[in-house]
Amino acid sequence: MNRRHFIKTNTLGGLLLAGDLVTTESPGSEMEKGKLHVKPRYYRWHVDEGEAWTEANTGHARLDWEIPVSQTALVLVDVWQRHYIKEPEERAEKIIDDHLLPLMTACRANGLEIIHAPAPEAARVHPRWINLPETAKVHDQAGEWPPKDFRRLSGSYSQYRRPTEPREAERQRLPALRIHPKAEPQGDEIVIATGDELHQYCRQKGILFLFFAGFNTNACILSRDYATIEMGKRGYQVLLVRDCTTGMESSESQATLAQTNGAILQLEMFGQYTVTSDEMIKGFRS
User: Which domains are seen in the chain, by residue range?
Assistant: First the structure.
């Protein structure tokens, strides 16, 4: 699927490419009670009239939405109590205190649902796990492909595995991952383990807009089956709260947070949107 077709079939922004009209209220109009006013940011792969079709002439743009709070949820991905690498743990702690907790407080005060999405192994032992049955999956009648041994890199395919790290046993002895104590579910907030559970729950509740926050930007935020890319494929409008996330950086990228910023830009370029926590908090004001 090429980029243009992906955006046309997976995002509201694609309606503009398809020639349909998207209407919004004027920026100065009063927001209805029970609505969230945000201006989602995306990366525009187009240029203005009279400009050359060059990358240098592309840039960010914003939309203007008023979203029904009843159709919206904040999904917290892998908000762990620890990280085995020092820097992402320190950045996450600061983000939780400075941005995520105020956002969670505002969401709870305004009736916007919070859904907790730690890794499946942590979700399934949490007392708030929703534990919905998996929907039936269609199996390939020609057999599983790629073969199970290949996907596991076992048997005759074990030669293609990465080597075992000498300190992996030390890492495995660290305390089990769990939801950060400051971000624990409150009230009737639920915990989901899979994208299928999140999808079923959203269908039951009529949720269409998913705001994502959590860690790590260039890993689980992109790749979990309950996170941004996969839920976008399921047809939801996906927005990342970009100041409520951080990635795992390399020795080369750590100084500039290039991995984090690149993951955010990837979403903005290919059909998703971003906002800040402050925008959301202010957007509740009627």
Answer: 3-20+34-135+177-283 (3.40.50.850)
